[in-house]
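Give me structure tokens for this 151-residue protein.
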Amino acid sequence: MRYLTIAIFIVASWQFGFAQQRDLKARLESAKIGIITERLNLSSKQAQIFWPLYNELNSKKKELKIELAKAKIDIQHSELNDENANAIIELYLNNQQKELDLDREYMEKFKEVITPKQVVQLIKVEEDFKKMILQKLRERQQNRRPSGGGG
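Here you go.
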């Protein structure tokens, strides 16, 4: 009975952790959408066409990242040798090229919906958002560290 209780606690904790992650991702995504909409000053007509394109691009980029991660895991299950290392390097470079190709394709699509100035603002907003998230993470980590002292 004790093991069952422990198992239930572990599974519940695990699920709670995933739920918290999903909640955090949803909040971050919502904040990102709000910031992009505000900074780009999208009209309702622009937003109606822009957001499906933007979501499509991000979905394709996510697929590329998952594909690369799976391939790395498959390769790294065997001993890492020069052949495997070269395969990972090639996968990485191909992935980077595919992502660049997607960016080129979608920048052109975006320019059909929003102005080139708004496209540049989009790039800047995304960079600023990433910096802000990284800064918040650093602050969180610093706040979690126990203060010095010790003996």
